[in-house]
Amino acid sequence: MSGLRLSVVVVSTGRPDALRRCLLGLSQLAEAGVEVVVVADGPGLDAANTLPFAARLKAYRQAVPNIARARNIGVQAASGDVIAFVDDDAAPEPTWGRAILSAFEDADLAAATGPVLGRNGISVQWGPLVVNGLAQDRPVSPDRPFAEGFVRKLQGTNMAFRRVTLEDLGGFDEGFAFYLDDTDMALRVGRAGLRTRWVPDAVVHHGFAASVRRNAARVPLSLADIGASSTLFLRKHAERPARAAALLELEAVQSSRLLRLAKARKIDAYKMRTLMETLREGIKAGEERDSIEPGIEPVQGNFEPLCDQDPPKPRVLSGWPHQLARLRAEAADLVKSGQPVSLFCFGPTPRKHVVRFTDGGWWEQTGGLYGPSDRDGPRLRFTTYHARLSAELSRISATRGL
């Protein structure tokens, strides 16, 4: 590994428990010497302060919720050669930092992104995508040239930049208080002719936790920020004749989203109308919103790594459902002593598997002995416990560091 240093920035508003879990995950990265910068509201900082490594975090208060501004605060405080971003409701696999640093050994690389797994911890939520100036994204093979007008999409919950790139581009645009701040940066990186890369081993789990903008059922509380940021994005990146059609498409997409929620009985007709009104209000506000690229100063502080030594290899615990309480208690004790843990619990059923990083700080995979983990695999497989455990360990060994 080269002498590159990695800083990770985590922005958090209204999710102290999720932030604490995210920071626990970062503390278990297989690559020691990673600096962690937290920009959060008061409850988030209070939660971070309960962690045993709190004194080694670079922590800053976010006075007003604005994800782009908070990212810039984090970038300004970070001292690494490479700066990565993870959302507070996410957890990186232990080898995530190592994969990022390995990619940036290519001296010409400006930015990178990798897979984001969804709520079940197995299915891909976001794979390799490209995006254009209309904020339209589409899947792409990582090794094929992009269509004209498209650049690599950088997912905000799993993206990394060479610090000098962020300095040269002036930081994140603070006009994007929420939504499309990462996509705006991707356009700026791509249109500057800078090299980007898809890093398949840099894996992040994303939970889509409740926030100040959506509830636990993923129902939006307002669409105003989406409307405002979309309008600013189009004003900044799209030709004028295409903007009106793009905004109509935005309304259609959000209307379809709300219809799906209504069919699932998560919202009613009145809530649908109210949310669409917030979207239109946001679009109107976005017509007047200014683009703000404040600039990033060169490194000013010292690099402060979260850990000085690589953590031990993860301990594997496994058993049947009737043993789960005991296994969890054992996992909790091991984590408190600094030992990462991967826990597997399989019942004699065909239930689908779920993987999660727990609030207690260990990785846990549960499901049926005969059920699928990889959703593209067979729906039912007959096997022994030992063979199934070996297969699951093999499936995750590269990213879990087993």
Q: What would your notes on this structure say?
A:
The structure is a single chain. The chain is an alpha/beta fold and 402 residues long. It has helices at residues 16-27, 42-48, 67-77, 96-103, 163-169, 181-191, 224-237, 240-263, 269-286, 324-336, 385-400; strands at residues 6-12, 35-40, 58-61, 82-85, 90-92, 109-113, 116-117, 124-126, 129-131, 137-139, 151-152, 159-162, 195-198, 204-206, 315-319, 341-347, 354-357, 363-368. A 7-stranded mixed sheet has the order 3-2-1-4-12-6-13, sandwiched between helices. The chain has a 4-stranded mixed sheet with strand order 5-14-7-8. Strand 1 (6-12), helix 1 and strand 2 form a beta-alpha-beta unit. Helix 1 (16-27) packs parallel to helix 2 (42-48), helix 7 (224-237) packs parallel to helix 9 and helix 8 (240-263) runs antiparallel to helix 9 (269-286). The mean pLDDT is 95.
Give a brief outline of the structure.
By secondary structure, this protein is α/β, with parallel strands linked by helices.
Write the layout of secondary structure elements.
Layout: E1 6-12, H1 16-27, E2 35-40, H2 42-48, E3 58-61, H3 67-77, E4 82-85, E5 90-92, H4 96-103, E6 109-113, E7 116-117, E8 124-126, E9 129-131, E10 137-139, E11 151-152, E12 159-162, H5 163-169, H6 181-191, E13 195-198, E14 204-206, H7 224-237, H8 240-263, H9 269-286, E15 315-319, H10 324-336, E16 341-347, E17 354-357, E18 363-368, H11 385-400
Parallel strand pairs: 1-2, 1-4, 2-3, 6-13, 7-14, 15-16, 16-18
Antiparallel strand pairs: 4-12, 5-14, 6-12, 7-8, 9-10, 9-11, 17-18
Helix pairs in contact: 1-2, 7-8, 7-9, 8-9
